[in-house]
Amino acid sequence: MPPGKRELARIERRLIATLTDACEAAKAEIQGFTWLTHTADLNALAATLNVIWVFDTEADKNLALTDAKARLFELTATALREADIDLSPSERNVRFDSEEECQRTHGGNWRERLAQNTRGQR
Which residues lie in Basic and acidic residues bias regions (predicted)? Predict the structure, then answer.
């Protein structure tokens, strides 16, 4: 039986809390990292979850992908495990982006950018 609305709300709250912890750790450790978010259809979490790590500039993002990518995947894995979500982080569900690129391509409109990127992956 699929989880009900209350259970889905609990899952979402746990995920937000654990990703917030991962975000704060990354802010302290990784130059140029600014925030993270996620997108998901909670009714199909394993198939739709995307964690997006956002950096200030493309240069910061590229440096992090060279020097700290393993750490970002580790932080993601810890967050998912602590949220009781049985999903291994992979290139399919963990993405990296930058404020600079969002400004250039979507005029700084993250809602539009995330919606477009989510539709493009289905």
Answer: 96-114
Query: φ and ψ at 49, to 5 degrees?
Result: -65, 130
> Max Cα separation, the chain?
46
CATH of domain 5-121: 3.30.300
* 0.85 surpassed by pTM: yes
Residue whose token pair is 């600079």: 100
Secondary structure of residue 56 in the 3-state scheme: coil
**What are the mean pLDDT values of the chain's consecutive 10-residue runs (122 residues total)?**
83 96 98 96 90 98 97 98 94 96 96 79 43
CB 93 within 8 A of CB 18: no
Cα angle at 114 between 65 and 86, to 5 degrees? Answer: 70
